[in-house]
Amino acid sequence: KPVEYSDDLVPASRLNLPEVDPGELGPGRHEQVFFTFVDRQGATIELQITGGGIAHYRDRGNVRVELWKVGGPSQGGERETLVARDRSVPPDGIERTVKLTSGERGLHKIVIQDGGDRTRVTWPAGQRMTVPSSLETPMNAHYLSWMLYFYVPQGTRVIGLHGGGHGEIHDSAGRPVFWLNGREPNFYSVDVPEGEDGKLWRIRYGRGPVRLLTVPPYFARSAGELLLPREVVDSDGDHESAEP
User: Fold this and answer.
1) Phi, psi of 39 (to 5 degrees)
2) 52, 164 in Cβ contact below 8 A?
3) What whole-number distance in Å separates Cα of residue 232 and Cα of residue 244?
4) Per-residue pLDDT, 77
5) Which of 47, 94, 95, 149, by CA, is between 20 and 30 Å from 29?
6) How far, in Å, CA of 85 to CA of 110, rounded?
7) Cα distance between residue 186 and residue 210, in whole Å
8) CA-to-CA distance for 70 and 175, rounded, in angstroms?
9) Strand 186-191 and strand 218-219: pairing?
10) Pick from 92, 207, 102, 104: which is nearest to 148 by CA?
11) Residue 238: how many CA atoms within 13 Å on its side-chain side?
């Protein structure tokens, strides 16, 4: 049974999660969505973007990048406010740097769109960047051979997910505990052994979307880049630490 989590995301730093081998995402097609967190007004978010990964689709225009502020006041009362956009990256297979600046601190959403010609998005190590993947908002279907981390909250006994085709679920020690290889896309459950809750798990060799159902549906390349629902960080974190 899916667990409801809020989309009020904050950095996971209060959980004091250990450093891990860096993950990898790879290129996607059409729309890619990320969440990031801006610590101070006027901060710059830096992305390295390569458009036109499929050469014969390079006639579909430049990569479209949008930065949205999530939550807080807005002129029209909307929850998401567009604060920056960029269309400078042509679909030519050459990596370029895009810098986006927000005038406000807090949670932001980045939306990358192309004409289906495949776009790779990377960013400096440690820059907060999280990929959502729930039943309602799955991760991009075109990510191939990705390796990303997710958090298993304290008290979790079963990880429910939807996926298939390819991928290994590893516990916090890097031990494979479940394989999606060769399985049809479907709902699956993975038991959480004693002492493996409150930890960072990972999916390795993922192909296409894996939707998380009973743990926060957010993936990241490392603990330092991970954003989680505020209520999870409040429940599992160090309450003496200052809130970001």
Assistant:
1) -80, -25
2) no
3) 14
4) 58
5) 149
6) 9
7) 10
8) 36
9) unpaired
10) 207
11) 11
